[in-house]
Amino acid sequence: MRERSPTTETFLTVGVGVYDMQPIDEVHVVPLGYEHDRILSPIRKHDADVVYLLTEQTHDRNLTPYQEVLVEELESDSRTVGFREVDLGDIYDVLAVVTTLAAEHAEDVVRVNVSSGGKLAAIGGAIACMATDATAYYVHVEEHVPDLESNPRTRGFEEAEVLPSYPIEAVSYDQVAILDYLAETNTDAYTAKKSDLIEFAETAELSFMTEADPANDKAKFALLNANVVDPLESDGYIAVETVGRQKQIELTETGWNVLHAFRHKLQDGR
């Protein structure tokens, strides 16, 4: 961890006669596109402690010479630099990685550069910030440069503009758990029914079931519909099909993507 100036923010945790000052890191999440100044300047301006570079490949980095220089400059500033593999052309993959990093740094200040990795990466990063406490920023540049092989896409740094946040309600832990259950349970030969979801919810002690303590099966189905099935179906994450007297539940393509984006909630806990 880098040395901190006297102005570094801290948490004051009060225990039993113990005062624990916990430093807050400045964390930047940055798609590693064909940029240099657009990435480096905001990181230095905010004196970031930790930087995560989102790249197409982490095990075999095929970087341009100016990207290699950028990484060397970031590491030479004595800050922690990490790489996360992500498909920058997949909104949901970017969304998944950024929300996961935001959750891992829930007590820190997390900023996301939405100007350095292309349009789809920008959308994924922006949505991730809306669903978390992270802050998205867009970097204005002085000029654009056409030759990407030998030069970054842009040059110079004017300002890093903080984008307005329009909070969205991310899927809950219970809903992610149900989506994950459907992904694990449904096969070509079997499709989960509402009764299966209720049994799983009770076994997994999902909060919508345990906190209400329903008195009978009718109440259990009502809770399942209100807290899980209806909102997920309304958002297009699941499809409900009536087969005889039963309701079968399947993940839609969007549901698979949302599960990918928010599966980290199952590791983070409730």
Automatic annotation (TrEMBL):
The HFX-2341-like N-terminal domain sits at 26-143
The domain of life is: Archaea
DUF6293 domain ranges (all copies): 163-262
Please state what the protein is called.
Uncharacterized protein
**The organism of origin for this protein:** Halorhabdus tiamatea SARL4B
Q: Lineage from the top down?
A: Archaea, Methanobacteriati, Methanobacteriota, Stenosarchaea group, Halobacteria
